[in-house]
Specification:
By secondary structure, the chain is an alpha+beta fold. It is built from 6 helices and 13 strands. The chain has 2 domains: 113 residues, Alpha-Beta Plaits (2-Layer Sandwich); 152 residues, ph1033 like fold (Roll).
């Protein structure tokens, strides 16, 4: 038996899963990760080309699957065929020998616990044509990801709560403002950056960073009468409210308070520093993002 570990672009996950299912390979584990290749990240530019900066870590998917020796090569072929975009930064595949496997429920051991193939040996899969919306290639110049600030009251849901979630990932539900909803529905995409902001705290401020790992989908708390976010006017057949999934990235070296943000001339136009600005989700410019992270590295 062998364990196959593949790290590839997140937007290729559905294609890879479908390819494996068609080949009768059903059991797998998927984890959202961030990483970089030998070129050390990417240089990114804004859509208008007004600024350029470096992104050290890129969003990727790690897929793990254990297969019998006889199925190893064809599993690799399926993953490559469906993960490839013919651009640098498509990822890597690693192979590890597995000495044994044990089914927890029965104690059964050996290759039999992996499950039988459910379909005949497929013909050699053909790579799909490269997609123009493919994610960033390591070392390439790409369009700018978006940057956001998410507010949350720490007494309700703190950055520590996000860190404690499985895979440090949670749905961002309960947004009941149309403009914030529109940001999630229309503008957010996988890989976008998030400043996690503790509101109604003493003091309020930025505590950590996160990434968007799933784009907008219906917020089912809106039609759950037992939820504090219940909206009687919301219809599951035509959802009004949306949510995204975010994954904690890292706690800042130090907490950056709202007063510090307001006192920094470089952040004079940052929305969170504006009087009366109460949106729970706010866009952030690349320069503002970089400045907040730089502030976290400096002493107060």
């Amino acid at each position: 038996m062998n364990k196959i570990e593949a790290i590839f672009r997140r937007e290729r996950l559905d294609s890879v899963k479908d390819g494996l299912s068609a080949a009768g390979i059903m059991g797998l584990t998927v984890t959202p990760v961030s990483g970089r290749g030998a070129q050390g990240g990417v240089q990114v530019t804004t859509a208008r080309g007004l600024s350029t900066h470096h992104i050290d870590m890129l969003p990727r998917t790690k897929l793990e699957v254990v297969v019998d020796d006889a199925d190893t090569d064809r599993t690799i072929d399926v993953i490559r065929a469906n993960a490839i975009t013919d651009h640098p930064g498509d990822g890597k595949i690693f192979i590890y020998p597995v000495s044994d496997a044990i089914r927890i429920s029965t104690g059964e051991r050996g290759p039999g616990v992996l499950g039988a193939r459910t379909s005949p040996e497929p013909e050699s899969p053909q790579p799909e044509s490269p997609q123009p919306e493919s994610g960033p290639a390591d070392g390439a110049v790409i369009s700018e990801p978006c940057y956001w600030l998410f507010k949350s009251e720490p007494s309700s849901y703190s950055y520590d709560d996000l860190l404690s979630e499985e895979a440090r990932t949670a749905e961002w539900d309960g947004v009941r403002n149309y403009q914030a909803r529109n940001f999630m529905r229309d503008d957010m995409r996988v890989g976008d950056y998030v400043l996690f902001y503790h509101s109604n705290a003493k003091p309020p401020g930025v505590v950590g960073t996160a990434r968007i790992v799933r784009t907008a989908y219906p917020d089912d708390s809106a039609w759950n009468p037992d939820s504090r976010y219940y909206d009687a006017k919301s219809d599951s057949a035509n959802p009004t409210w949306m949510m995204v999934d975010i994954q904690a990235e890292r706690r800042l070296p130090r907490y950056v308070s709202l007063n510090e943000l307001k006192a920094n001339p470089a952040l004079a136009d940052m929305l969170v520093t504006k009087r009366g600005q109460r949106l729970s989700i706010q866009p952030v410019t690349p320069a503002e993002w970089a400045e907040v992270l730089a502030m976290a590295e400096r002493s107060a």
